[in-house]
Design brief:
The chain is an alpha+beta fold and 261 residues long. The chain has helices at 9-13, 22-28, 64-72, 125-146, 148-151, 157-162, 200-205, 249-259; strands spanning 18-19, 36-39, 42-45, 47-51, 55-61, 78-84, 93-108, 113-122, 155-156, 165-173, 178-186, 190-196, 209-215, 218-231, 238-245.
Length: 261
């Protein structure tokens, strides 16, 4: 993880927050199994859903009695615990936040899901650096995506395979149908695949496309737009498809080892 000064963070990032998903947990090094909300002496396991420099939203599974107790009780001490992995340190870093409950929401009665909004009264410096790291990486990803230097450079599948890309890509069509293509090459904003003739027309007719790209780190789902297609001169009933991909820091982070080559 790169080092950044947090002095400029409030001016640059304002009220922005980060919506958490498994990929972001990995990028930020957050250990999901070590997220704890402590209310006086009560410890509750939780899952972060959204984080910022000022607070967070966490998901909990609580019985009806537990919900009634938490909403009716006034706690003298509320702390939020996170654990992060940082390559600069040999061991995971435990982080402790003094917090205040701003809102309690019941999301799903059947599954006892609840969402608690916390505001921080104190946030550790390592955490603030983590938030800044993410937003600066988002800015850097936008620069890479828009740069002709990277956008015009295609990497063949053999290079993509070396960094964990699966050969097959799945496309979800606006009709709900799913079709499979095989990856030929990719850049930071486009990917070229080939498909068999029977699936070509449904692809051309689809108003919206979503590309599901499988990697060794999981599946990355991106909105896509078909911008070119042509028939293979060598293989019967095979068509080459070029898709323009939406900007994704996740995708750029996955392909990043090739950018340095």
């Amino acid at each position: 993880m790169e080092k950044y000064s947090t002095k400029k963070m409030p001016q640059i990032f304002g009220e922005r927050s980060i919506t958490i998903n498994p990929y972001i947990l990995k990028i930020l090094g957050i250990n999901r199994s070590r997220c704890i909300l402590r209310l006086d002496q009560i410890k509750l396991s939780c899952v972060p859903c959204r984080i910022s420099d000022k607070g967070c939203k966490v998901l909990l599974i609580l019985s009806r009695k537990e919900q009634e107790f938490l909403q009716g009780e006034e706690f003298s001490s509320i702390t939020f615990h996170l654990e992060i992995f940082n390559p600069e340190y040999d061991k995971p870093i435990p982080l402790f936040f003094r917090a205040k409950i701003e809102e309690f929401q019941e999301l799903n009665k059947r599954h006892n899901q609840c969402l608690i909004t916390l505001s921080y009264q104190y946030a550790p410096q390592d955490y603030l650096q983590l938030i800044e790291y993410y937003f600066l990486w988002e800015m850097k990803s936008a620069e890479i995506y828009e740069s002709p230097l990277y956008a015009n450079k295609k990497y063949p599948y053999r290079d993509l395979a070396e960094i964990g890309f699966s050969k097959h890509l799945q496309l979800s069509l606006s009709t709900g149908e799913k079709v499979t293509g095989r990856i030929m090459s990719s850049s930071v904003n486009r990917i070229m695949i080939y498909v068999d003739l029977p699936v070509l027309q449904p692809l051309l007719d689809s108003n919206d496309l979503q590309a599901e790209i499988s990697t060794s780190d999981g599946v990355i789902t991106l909105n896509a737009r078909l911008i070119d297609h042509s028939k293979s001169a060598e293989i019967a009933d095979v068509h080459f498809i070029t898709l323009e991909l939406e900007r994704s820091s996740f995708y750029i982070n996955q392909i990043k080892p090739l950018l340095k080559a």
